Amino acid sequence: MEIPKQKHSLIDDAQGIAFGSFMASVGVLLLTHLGFVTGQTAGLAILISYATGWGFGPVFFVVNLPFYWLGWRRFGPGFVAKSFAAVALLSLLVSFLPPYLQFGTVHPAVGAVLIGCLTGAGLLALFRHGSSLGGVGIVGLYIQDATGFRAGWVQLIFDAALFALAFFLRDPVTVGWSFLGAIVLNLTIAVNHRRDRYIV
């Protein structure tokens, strides 16, 4: 017997977005503590932050602004409102958490895996509550709709360009550990983000 799907309540969404943003913010703080890089709009914001010395939180918030219009057209106002809330919350948390959450010695391998797990768990929560933390996926879907070129390839090309740029700002070993974190993150999403398994 098939279990009927149920919609999340407003409280469910608020809890899911708060949890997802918090987990992702801890992942970002650990990532910047280790000097790592990552992909998507978060990765772009981190590289800008490294290059300029500007805080990640404000940069991440501004970098995402152009994508909300595309999100509105592709997914509707509900998605945009939830994504705006998630991005704003993560930007605030990353700016205000450091005095209350500090890291000591973290081995890069352990850090890379933990970053991937923390951020992956956060993104899963956001996805399941109709939200996101970045606009590159939206651009990918637009290109896919217009040309047939797969959205996944668009994201992969964008991330490859970011990691190539990272070699000018970080040493190759650090970029390599960062890549491990990105693999863990993407595997976490790929294995667990399945609409045919998640029923609400």
From TrEMBL:
Pfam families: YitT_membrane. It is found in: Cell membrane. The keyword NAD does not apply. It comes from Paracoccus marinaquae. It is a multi-pass membrane protein. The chain crosses the membrane at residues 16-36, 42-67, 79-97, 109-127, 148-169, 175-192. This is YitT family protein. InterPro entries: UPF0750_membrane, YitT. It comes from the Bacteria. The keyword Transmembrane applies. Its main location: membrane. Keywords: Cell membrane, Membrane, Transmembrane, Transmembrane helix.
